[in-house]
Amino acid sequence: MIRPTLWEGPEMRGRNMKQLLVVLVFGMFLFTGSAYAAGSSDTPAKTGSSEMMAARDHVKAERYKDAIPQLQKVIAQQPQNADAWNLLAYSQRKMDDLTASLENYKKALSIDPSHKDAHEYLGELYLRMGDLAKAEKQLKRLDSLCFFGCDQIDELKAAIAAYKKKKE
């Protein structure tokens, strides 16, 4: 009788169980990660307000001046909304208000220390301010947050590489 190789001996069973466990854990990350694919770390209830949706539309259309008052309204209603603080900081950075941007990225990260977009954008802000060491610190933090890699790591790595090339 031929037995399937999958179940040959106890050492194979242990190995296959480990492989199955890795696949299951990876699957969990895939399914839970899709809920946050848009970079949102807040619940849909927090990000679903009409002001937040309008602000996101302004940011996507690069109308940062219009996004800022919308985001300020969201923050007034939901001061613990890390996404709103992050988008406010992003818009301020794009409008060259680097001091306010820095303060608001830090606020977003004080609310949600795992906010990947805030870490990426803060790293990009540090590059604009000429602080490569702090940008690399944000990259290191992202590396610890993104077990299987993420867009934010790729974007910040590319920005750091471009910064270094420009400085050569």
Brief sketch in words of this structure:
75% of the residues lie in helices and 0% in strands. With 168 residues, it is mainly alpha-helical.
Structural class: mainly alpha
Task: Provide the number of structural domains.
Answer: 2
Low-confidence stretches: 1-8, 32-47
Radius of gyration: 21 Å
The residue-averaged pLDDT reads 83
Fraction in beta strands: under 5%
Q: What is the approximate shape? A: globular
Query: What's the CATH superfamily of the largest domain, by name?
Result: Tetratricopeptide repeat domain
Main pleated-sheet profile: none
Summarize the helix and strand pattern as letters. Answer: HHHHHHHHH
CATH architecture of the largest domain: Alpha Horseshoe
N-C termini distance: 69 Å
Can you tell me the CATH topology of the largest domain?
Answer: Serine Threonine Protein Phosphatase 5, Tetratricopeptide repeat
Q: Kindly provide the name of the CATH class of the largest domain.
A: Mainly Alpha
Number of helices in the DSSP assignment: 9
- Assign a percent range to the helix content: over 70%
Number of strands: 0
